[in-house]
Amino acid sequence: MNKKWINGFGALALGSVVVLSGCTGNNAENPEQTKEVGQEAVVTVWGGSDFLKGDESPGQRMVKEFNEKNKGRIRVEARYMPWAEYNSAVQAAATSNELPDIFQTPQNTDIRSIVANGWALPYDGLLSEEWKKQFIAGSFAEGVNVIDGKTYSWPLTGPQLSSILYYNKDVLQKAGLDPEKPPTTWDELRSMSNTITAKGKGDVYGIVFGGGESGDASGIGKFVNALSAGIDPQAAEGFNYKTGQYVYSSKATLDAFDFLLKLKADGSILPSSFTLKSTEASVLFGQGKAAFLIDGRARMWIAKRDTPDVKLGLAAVPTPTGSKPTYYYVQAAPAGYLISAKSKNAKAAAEFIEKAFSSQLFYEKYLNSGVALTPINSINENKALYPYPEFDSFLKLHKEELKLRPDYAIQNPQTAKVIVGLGTLSQPKIKPSFSDILQAVLTGAEKDAAPLLKAYDEKLNKGLDEAVNKVKSSGVQVSRDDFTFPNWQADKDYTSDDYKQLVKK
User: Fold this and answer.
1) How far is C-alpha 289 from the geometric centre of its chain's CA atoms?
2) What is the dihedral of CA 125, 130, 132, 134, to 10 degrees?
3) What are the DSSP calls for 473-485, one per residue?
4) Are the C-beta atoms of 266 and 197 separated by less than 8 Å?
5) Quick one: which H or E segment has residue 468?
6) Facing residues of 80 across strands?
7) How does DSSP classify residue 440?
8) Residue 215 pLDDT
9) Residue 240 pairs with which residues in a beta bridge?
10) 205 DSSP 8-state letter
11) Strand-strand pairing, 290-295 and 205-207
């Protein structure tokens, strides 16, 4: 999207706004008032999460059950849209004051930005305290999904592993390789990919990925980040919380990108990978056109859905030495589903959230669909809900590789004001992005990634400095040190005690 945001969201062409206006179905009176007897409250929900996609998705199944139980009183209309369409639709709806009753944070923004612009209603007084107690400890945090003491959303999932090596057992077996022994080192991944490609004779390749998408969380940037975590996990996502600096030009990143260049030179990557979308890469992988796919936790169930006959294996992403990589997460998420400040059915929307959309019953369906782990521990450990045998490996990888990282919002909730100015910590306004730079070198448009990434780091560090200083000049107690955690150890969860020790210093 190249349109600038207006008041946090931005405008589209007038025609788009006209088309979207009036679509929300909000027809009750004031949200604080009780609806008239016999009047059905229509609650509209928009989202880009796959758990709303299709009649058999856990989200749509829950909507159907809720509507049947509340017939004549509340009716929920949930609409799934692919992210690109969703982002544009929400922008237009926000600009025309026609947001749905419940909406998901668009990409490249977060709860803090939305609240700062007055688009969301706090849950307080609408949802119960008992509802909050069901979630994993740490699911609600000031400056993340709690702003100025008020709650605006909940974590949609439990811990999420961003990088998994998926392998097609049939492809390995046909190439004469052991389908139960995936590669653990970069050398093994390269050697096996070359063997598979040679025997595939232009029809089957070693590796496929969705390189045609932009953004660090997708495309080439995602692939490189997954590999660099095996060298220096603290630098793998582009921002080192130990030093408080952007480090896209780290040696770990450059080494991982160099390995990608070698795979390309070998010819073992499916040629269309550099223009494919993730969903397209997933289908080709499931159809046996490539042996290996590195992607996040969602790819497991999507591959199962789109190519149900695939014999799927899951393993840790290979590292230079064969050691396990480490990835990070935060339990309280700055993204999720919010109630619109303009909702005329806020009480009904809150009832749907508490009794259906974020209930234990929903999350049982959610886990059973294979989408992800849930934010409720007792459900995650219930093996009777596991949808297929691979889920045991899925859970094991999450437990072995994920660690809690420091969160600047917990250290100082006032950093939320800094993030509002940036959009997100990754600063999506700064172009070209990490993935754009890597793509340019891969295609030959640029020759050397190192100086380009160094310049990118400098722009990002300057941008964060300026954002901090701007907020600080308004009288807010915030500093660059709030983004720095010198006591962070890569192989351990960052706990409440670690925050306390940092404060004492």
Assistant:
1) 27
2) -160
3) HTT----GGGG--
4) yes
5) helix 449-473
6) 47
7) H
8) 64
9) 245
10) E
11) parallel
